[in-house]
Design a protein that fits this description.
This protein is of the alpha+beta class. Among the domains are: 74 residues; 96 residues, Serine Threonine Protein Phosphatase 5, Tetratricopeptide repeat, CATH 1.25.40; 73 residues, Carboxypeptidase-like, regulatory domain (Immunoglobulin-like, Sandwich), CATH 2.60.40. The chain is built from 17 helices and 7 strands. Strands 3-2-5-6 form a 4-stranded antiparallel sheet, with no helix packed on it. A 3-stranded mixed sheet has the order 4-1-7, with no helix packed on it. Helix 11 packs parallel to helix 13. The longest helix is centred in the middle third of the chain and has 32 residues.
């Protein structure tokens, strides 16, 4: 009895595969190969007239067929990358591609060398790699634009003109219409000049030469309005100059306040206020100035009032004291002075009225009023010479107006004579009497005659005054 041999599954599988391949080879030999191999030609007698036979080219080998396929693939890969390269070259990739584009060109040269050496499969692989590199470059355009703008801005800040020009040239190569790139490229052109102006400005500022520093900063601003340092430096110098001018103005104002030069103090504070309207120091000094001006003004009005009192210009005195009270309504000297001035002004006015029309004193009531006025003024203190003269003059007028004057009335011994408010005197040829100065109405009557009415003014202090009273016209 034969022993059973155990065969593993792997061995069975391997044997089965080998058998399958053997059967396939038999099929090829039996059925396919006869079609590929030409049948043997029949042996015939050579024809001396027939041309000599030409050998047919041998069929290409599998290696040749593969080589042809590799070449076509390399050419197709090359065509694709060249199309992409043409587009990128039009987009100035040679400017903005940098080292990455140089690597593309080096890799492309390597592929061309492989192609020339008929290493077409390797060349195709290189060409595909170059295509991927070009695609990566194309995708990176926006990122490169952002980076170039940032680097350009940094170069502007550090005044690296060459780097700034290079970076903004890259940015403009990527996007010729980009505003920031255009503005940055323009600024890069003047960057060296800007740096020189700013350096000079900084030196002047350190040395305290504010005028020159401001001039250089302004020149830098005009050259490059976007230069932050120029703008900030100009503002800083201007602020420093303003602060120095403010301090100088305040020093002048305070010194002037101390010496009483109020006009100078006012002008200096006006300059300081324009420089710093919110300054508490200015506000305090202005209050001090106001107080001093008010005190000075009050002193001026007071002096004017005192001089007016001495000169007895009482209306002027009243105006001066009222001006003081308009500034300080509680000024006691002005309140008391105004009351005194108004009393004297009123007294002068009353005296002037009597002295301007002394005939009023010929009437008893005005004369009595004038006499009371004289008695009231007699107790008044502080009378000036003008007032005393007026009082004396009025007193004289009152006395004269109250002193009877000798008068003579002549008549014809036929006319009845009477004087209003004096009496009836009858008929006479002459009558002497004493009458107070004044105007009288004298009447003469006679039977059968028209009455006579006369207006007679008896003047004070005059010599004997005469009047004739006769009725002459018959009825």
């Amino acid at each position: 009895m034969r022993a059973k041999v155990h065969v593993s599954p792997w061995v069975r599988t391997t044997l089965l595969a080998a058998l399958t391949m053997l059967l396939a080879a038999v099929v090829v030999v039996v059925w396919v190969l006869p079609d590929l191999v030409e049948p043997p030609a029949e042996v015939a007698e050579p024809d001396p007239r027939a041309p000599a036979p030409v050998d047919k080219p041998a069929a290409p080998s599998a290696q040749q067929l593969q080589l042809a396929r590799d070449k076509r693939e390399a050419e197709r890969a090359l065509q694709q990358l060249l199309e992409r390269q043409t587009v990128l070259e039009a987009q100035q990739v040679s400017v903005w591609g940098g080292a990455d584009y140089e690597a593309v060109l080096a890799r492309l040269a390597e592929g061309d060398a492989r192609f020339t050496a008929e290493e077409f499969a390797a060349a195709a692989a290189v060409y595909r790699d170059v295509g991927a590199m070009l695609q990566a470059l194309e995708v990176s355009r926006q990122q490169r634009l952002t980076a170039a703008l940032a680097s350009g801005a940094q170069a502007l800040e550090s005044y690296d003109a060459e780097s700034a020009r290079k970076q903004f040239a890259i940015a403009l190569a990527i996007d010729p219409h980009h505003e920031d790139a255009q503005r940055g490229a323009a600024r890069a052109v003047t960057l060296d000049r800007l740096a020189a102006l700013l350096a000079a400005a900084r030196d002047h500022e350190r040395n305290g030469d504010w005028t020159q520093a401001a001039e250089q900063y302004r020149a830098a601003q005009q050259l490059d309005p976007d230069a932050d340092e120029a703008r900030e430096g100009a503002a800083r110098v201007a602020a420093t100059v303003e602060q120095l001018e403010f301090r100088a103005a305040m020093s002048q104002a305070l010194a002037a306040l101390e010496t009483g030069a109020l006009s100078t103090a006012r002008s200096a504070l006006q300059r300081a206020y324009k420089l710093d309207p919110k300054s508490q120091q200015v506000a305090d000094a202005q209050r001090r100035l106001t107080d001093k001006i008010q005190a000075h003004t009050i002193a001026q009005h007071r002096a004017q009032a005192q001089q007016g009192e001495r000169d007895e210009r009482w209306q002027e005195v009243i105006g001066a004291y009222r001006a003081v009270l308009a500034i300080d309504a509680r000024a006691q000297f002005a309140l008391q002075g105004l009351q005194r001035a108004e009393r004297f002004a009123e007294l002068h006015g009353q005296l002037d009225a009597y002295l301007a029309a002394p005939q009023r004193l010929q009437s008893s009531q005005p004369r009595a009023n004038a006499d009371r006025l004289l008695q009231s003024a007699s107790s008044l203190t502080g009378k000036g010479p003008q007032l005393r003269r007026k009082l004396d003059a009025l007193e004289e007028l009152v006395n004269r107006a109250g002193t009877p004057v000798a008068v003579l009335i002549r008549s014809d011994n036929q006319t009845e004579v009477s004087i209003d408010r004096v009496g009836r005197f009858g008929r006479f040829e002459e009558s002497r009497m004493r009458l107070l100065p004044g105007t009288y109405r004298v009447r003469g009557t006679r039977a059968g005659y028209r009455d006579v009415y006369l207006k007679w003014t008896v003047k004070a202090g005059a010599a004997l005054q005469t009047i004739e009273v006769r009725c002459k016209e018959r009825i």
